[in-house]
């Protein structure tokens, strides 16, 4: 695929976005699956596969939010697409940008890169989320949190007044391409590993490849980071990756509160995470299934979740009685184990 071919494909995408806005957001929502599938197929024909996969995932992301939020969500999705396209046009030779537009470099290429950032230490496996794509063809990601204090240039730039004390936690995001059949993850949620992550090139070290990981002895506490507003943590990501869809958050001590909601379709329980300072985020869940762990889960010392701009997808919490792991079923119910 030549740069000229990619540029022509992005011209088609620009026109598609403009056409959807001209037709109206509500009309777009009425046929969102067909509209997104159509432009995604055209991008795939031109080998712009990474961007096609992202667009394929738009209907699922939009329809996951409340109906009254969907027009705003569409504008947000389109804005991120435009930001990515403009960034590529400004620097079409960028390996960093091309992996979001055309295709990811192979893991082998990243591991062979002598200039790639390598971080060695202890990592805790937090869980997996789906990033984009349709159903079984979704791109999935595994999330890790660095337990070892890191001193990368990026973290030092974000550090507090004390040298070597970075204010932002270091995460590693391992992306798995879309495949019909996926092997079960070799990692266990809540287990800490010793080893090295090799990061893709870019202004912010997040997406990575595992070089070596082995189960660590014992368990160390998570980094202690206090933010009056937890969403402060996403600022470096929005500056470096304005087209990003998901942001990892390390949340301080707080609690979960239940909120009863009613609609024509029935009544259900929503959950919000509320920090001790009063900041709150809605959770992507409707019902806690394992009530035996409810008391511990409702007052976590720390929690890790993924923020998508609308909801917090819970991954894991530290409580007075150890780790608690979360998972969502297909109906949006939150299971605790």
Summarize this structure briefly.
By secondary structure, the protein is α+β, with helices and mostly antiparallel strands. The protein has helices spanning 3-23, 25-30, 32-45, 49-56, 58-63, 70-90, 95-101, 107-112, 153-157, 235-240, 294-297, and strands at residues 118-132, 139-146, 171-176, 192-199, 208-215, 247-251, 254-263, 266-275, 280-282, 302-307, 312-319, 322-328, 334-336. A 5-stranded antiparallel β-sheet has the order 3-2-1-4-5. It has a 5-stranded antiparallel β-sheet with strand order 6-10-11-12-13.
Fold and architecture overview:
There is one protein chain. With 337 residues, the protein is of the alpha+beta class. The protein contains 11 helices and 13 strands. The strands form 3 sheets. The chain has a 5-stranded antiparallel beta sheet with strand order 3-2-1-4-5. The protein has a 5-stranded antiparallel beta sheet with strand order 6-10-11-12-13. It has a 3-stranded antiparallel beta sheet with strand order 7-8-9, with no helix packed on it. β10 and β11 form a beta hairpin. α1 runs antiparallel to α6.
């Amino acid at each position: 695929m030549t740069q000229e071919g990619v540029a022509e494909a992005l011209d088609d995408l620009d026109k598609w976005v403009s056409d959807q806005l001209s037709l109206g957001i509500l009309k777009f929502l009425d046929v969102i699956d067909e509209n997104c599938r159509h432009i995604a197929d055209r991008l795939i024909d031109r080998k712009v596969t990474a961007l096609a996969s992202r667009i394929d995932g738009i209907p699922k992301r939009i329809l996951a939010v409340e109906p009254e939020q969907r027009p705003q969500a569409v504008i947000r999705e389109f804005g991120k697409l435009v930001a990515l396209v403009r960034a590529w046009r400004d620097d079409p030779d960028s390996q960093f940008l091309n992996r979001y537009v055309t295709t990811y470099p192979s893991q082998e290429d990243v591991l062979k890169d002598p200039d790639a950032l390598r971080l060695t230490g202890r990592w805790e496996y937090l869980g997996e989320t789906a990033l984009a794509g349709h159903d079984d063809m979704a791109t999935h990601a595994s999330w890790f949190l660095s337990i070892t204090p890191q001193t990368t240039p990026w973290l030092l730039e974000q550090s507090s007044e004390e040298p070597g004390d970075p204010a932002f936690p270091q995460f590693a995001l391992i992306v798995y391409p879309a495949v019909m059949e996926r092997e079960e993850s070799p990692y266990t949620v809540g287990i800490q590993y010793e080893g090295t992550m090799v990061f893709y090139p870019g202004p912010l070290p997040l997406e990575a490849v595992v070089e070596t990981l082995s189960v660590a002895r014992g368990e160390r506490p998570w980094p202690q980071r206090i933010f009056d507003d937890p969403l402060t943590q996403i600022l470096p990501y929005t500056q470096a990756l304005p087209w990003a869809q998901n942001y990892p958050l390390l949340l301080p001590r707080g609690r979960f509160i239940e909120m009863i909601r009613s609609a024509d379709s029935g009544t259900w329980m929503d959950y919000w995470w509320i920090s001790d300072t009063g900041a709150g985020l809605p959770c992507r869940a409707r019902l806690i299934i394992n009530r035996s762990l409810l008391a511990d889960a409702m007052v976590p010392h720390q929690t890790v979740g993924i923020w998508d701009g609308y909801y917090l997808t819970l991954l894991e919490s530290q409580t007075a009685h150890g780790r608690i792991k979360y998972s969502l079923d297909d109906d949006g119910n939150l299971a605790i184990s």
